[in-house]
Every structure is written in structure tokens, then in C-alpha cells.
Amino acid sequence: MKISAIINTLNEEENIENLLKTIKWVDEIIIVDMYSEDRTVEIAKNYTDKIYFHKRLGFVEPARQFAFEKASNEWILVLDADELVPKILSNEMIKISEENKYDVIYILRSDYFIGEPLKGTLFESFRFQPRFFKRDKLVFTDKIHGGVEIDEKAITYKINDKKKQIFHLSDSLHGNDTIFEDLFLKQDTYTTIEAKNNIEGIKNQKVFLKIIYYFCIILKYYLLIKLQKKNNKTGFQNIFYACSWINYFGLINAKLNLYYKYGTFDFSENIINNYNKIAEEVAKEYEVGE
Known about the structure:
This protein has helices spanning 16-20, 40-44, 61-70, 87-99, 179-200, 207-226, 232-262, 268-287, and strands spanning 3-9, 28-33, 51-53, 75-80, 83-84, 104-113, 116-117, 126-134, 138-140, 148-150, 156-159, 165-169. The chain has 290 residues and is an alpha/beta fold. It is globular and about 85 Å long. The chain contains eight helices and twelve strands. 26% of the residues are buried. It has two domains: 3-169, Alpha-Beta Complex (Spore Coat Polysaccharide Biosynthesis Protein SpsA, Chain A), CATH 3.90.550; 179-283, no CATH class. Helix 5 packs across helix 7 and helix 6 (207-226) runs antiparallel to helix 7. The strands form two sheets. Strands 1, 2, 3, 4, 5, 6, 7, 8, 11 and 12 form a ten-stranded mixed sheet that branches. A hairpin with a 2-residue loop joins strand 6 (104-113) and strand 7.
């Protein structure tokens, strides 16, 4: 059975070639780009001539189905530009496609953060995701951070081997100057979409409970560091990761509160107007008695 790999891109010149070097074994590579402003497309042309364009959105999910529809083979492998596929995993996927016993394959993903894989029981570095599947057994939805619909009759299988995983270099550069700039810009974009989804009833994030959850993780690793039962490097990495998620869900909560106050997610102008009123009031204090 032939295999198509689909990849959605936006300003991925720092990452795309690393990924493409690890999937030269597939029969077809589909790139759907959101009009990158860097060398992403130029680099991709060295590996495939099947490059398409989709209007730029704040997140990738709506464009996944578009990329999927461009693929021509029976088996589909979906990847992000900041991921890598080790050879031991590619061999396993080729074997699965040839044996043809299953329809949807869940693959482990190892998330890297500030240069190292996340470790620990509360931050599970390895996550199962349906990444390899027959084209008639799965479709993508528009939900941020996932969102697939799997045929209820599909035969699923998990590659339950931590050596056979996708490496996700989650905080690699995506067209910005630094890793932290990239992280916070993505959080600003994604949290606005998440807040809108909460209002529209598409996805309820249960923001407060998640903030408590990540706060407990920070407390756990802080105590482990103090008691010297956890390697400091791992402990601090997990604390920082938890802080980034508290910031993420805190932003969602803040944007929801501002929406309820102003009736719009374009609340920056309202806030600036408030500041201008304060500035005018302070200026008037100096006008008295002039």
C-alpha cells in the first residue's frame, strides 16, 4: 500500500527540511502552506512538487482536511513541520501498511520543551495520537489542538513502543526571533481562538480547573527539588512548562472576562479609550487654576 504524508506549514524555514529528510521514504509528500513569508516553500520544492496554498488562519486545524483531500494514496501520515520521524518508526508503519490488518494507527509523540524531552508522570512525554490511517477511516474537524472523527467501524492499533515515536520539537522557531517570543505569540493567538470557542459552545476548556491542575504540578516539582528527590534540571523544566500552561489558561480566562465586559474580542480599543480618559482627567488637574 502506498503512503502519503501531509504537512501544513507557515513560516517553517527553520524546521521543514529536518522533517522532510526523515520522510523521503513515503510515496507522496503533500505540503499545504499558508503563504509563508520565509523560505519554507523554496525548501519544500527540493522534496516535492505537490505544494498547495490555503488562506492564512490563526491555527492549522481548518487546513488539515484540505491537505488530506489533496493526498492520493490509501494510507495517510499527518505531521507537523516541527516534528521528526525516526527510521525505526517508518519501518513499523511500512510493515503495518503492507500487512493491512488495521485502519487507524495511534503513534506515540515525545514532546520537547526548552531543548529537552519532557519527563515525569504528570507531564507524560509520550502521547498517543491517530497519525497514520486509511483515508476513508478518519476526517479532520476545525477544533484547535486536535479534532478528528474516526469511523466507528475502524480497527485501531497502538504502536506501544517508546522507541517508535514522533519527536515533537514544540518550541522550535516558527519565523520569530527567539523561542520565547514564538511561544508567547502562539499563546496569544491560540487563547483568543479558545476563548471564542468557549463562547460559541464549540469547546469548554474548564479553565479554572486546569489552572489548579498545573499549579499542583508546580508545587509537586518544587517540593521534589527541595527534597532533592528529583533532578533539578528536570524539575525546573517541568515547573516552567506548567507555568506556560497556567499563563495559557489564564489568558483564556482574562479574554473571556473582557468579552463579557465589552461584548467583543476586539477589546484593545476599549481599553485604550479607558486609558485616554484617565489621561484626560489627570491633565485636567493641571488646568485648574491656570
